[in-house]
Design a protein that fits this description.
Number of strands: 2
Strand order of the largest sheet: 1-2
Largest sheet: 2 strands, antiparallel
Helix content: over 70%
Distance between the termini: 19 Å
Shape: globular
Oligomer: single chain
Strand content: under 5%
Number of domains: 1
């Protein structure tokens, strides 16, 4: 078994172990609502992690995603507010994702054409985007628009009704469980990211750059242009995650999600993507996001543990997966030398 499938297998095992533990200890843990909440509550982390996965596979890193998410939320709230600008939410969202993509492309330009380290460029971008958010509005701004109160809520999929009517599971499914638009967006990005990496030239180039950038250049891969596109895609995903946050919170705040970029990186690494690049995939990242969500859910069900325990467990898991990756890399190096 190669290292890609081995790390993915370990991730799947940890996910099933956590879910099985929750089901054994807490009677209501097997309910459909818990699964739906896992996707809905972690949707913005998951969408940003999809973009982060592509960046890390290419051998880079993006520390600006959380700031872009926060900036996007306050931008949309500001533009939609009828007393300020009165835009339709779809107009504000289109402008936000476009600006997120342009911002990411600018970071990719500095990384590729000036040969700067992604850590330094995106660290600067992190402070820049957060500062822009505070300039737009430094307070929490509620979004009061019929699009959010009526349209977004109406786009939920009635899962419980579908499972009862078409699969005959009326004895196992509670009434009133719906798949919210936030979870639908998360699933859409996971599917799109998986297809993009697996079946397109863009995906092949991403893996080639992450495996060996010098060899990729010799093979004719437009590395500089690809880096601009990769970081533009990461900025797009972060801005899209910000749009989803407005569905979830119906508000914008420039101080939101400090440190969420670390959650996205943790989910990506736990999902089997190597920090050295060249190996990984979006399905693993999906499992990584669900693992983070399960840890938080288990702590919530327990009721007597502080939320900081989630950070402790996540840190331990992250250390475990990085150690596994290091051991795999050493094994491959020894095998190549012999």
């Amino acid at each position: 078994m190669n290292r890609r499938y081995l790390t993915l297998t370990v991730t799947a095992f940890v996910l099933l172990l956590l879910y099985g533990f929750g089901a054994a200890v807490f009677p209501n843990f097997l309910s459909l609502r818990v699964i739906v909440n896992l996707f809905g509550d972690n949707s913005f982390t998951g969408i940003s992690a999809v973009g982060m996965t592509i960046v890390i596979i290419s051998g880079g890193i993006d520390l600006s995603v959380a700031s872009v998410i926060a900036c996007t939320t306050i931008f949309i709230a500001q533009m939609v507010n009828p007393e300020l600008h009165g835009w339709h939410p779809l107009q504000a969202m289109a402008a936000a994702v476009a600006m997120g993509a342009v911002f990411g492309a600018a970071q990719g330009f500095f990384i590729s054409f000036f040969n700067l380290h992604p850590y330094l460029v995106t660290l600067s971008g992190m402070f820049f985007a957060r500062g822009v958010g505070y300039i737009i509005n430094d307070t929490n701004l509620a979004i009061k628009h019929p699009f959010y109160s009526e349209t977004v809520r109406g786009l939920s999929i009635p899962l419980s009704a579908i499972l009862r009517d078409y699969l005959g599971l009326e004895n196992y499914v509670r009434k009133g469980v719906s798949l919210p638009l936030t979870a639908q967006c998360f699933i859409l990005f996971v599917v799109a990211g998986t297809l993009l990496l697996a079946f397109t030239r863009f995906g092949r180039y991403v893996y080639a750059i992450g495996s060996n950038e010098a060899s990729a250049r010799l093979m004719g891969v437009p590395v500089d242009r690809m880096k601009i596109q990769i970081y533009a895609l990461s900025g797009f995903c972060a801005a899209a995650a910000g749009c989803v946050v407005t569905f979830y919170m119906q508000a914008g705040n420039s101080s939101l999600f400090v440190g969420l970029e670390m959650d996205a990186i943790a989910a990506t690494v736990i999902g089997g993507t190597l920090l050295t690049g060249g190996v990984g995939g979006v399905p693993g990242t999906l499992m990584g996001v669900l693992i983070l969500g399960l840890i938080q859910t288990l702590i919530t069900f327990h009721g007597n543990l502080n939320n900081w325990w989630a950070k402790i467990f996540i840190g331990a898991l992250l250390f475990l997966f990085i150690s596994i990756q290091q051991l795999l890399n050493r094994g491959l190096t020894r095998r190549a030398s012999t």
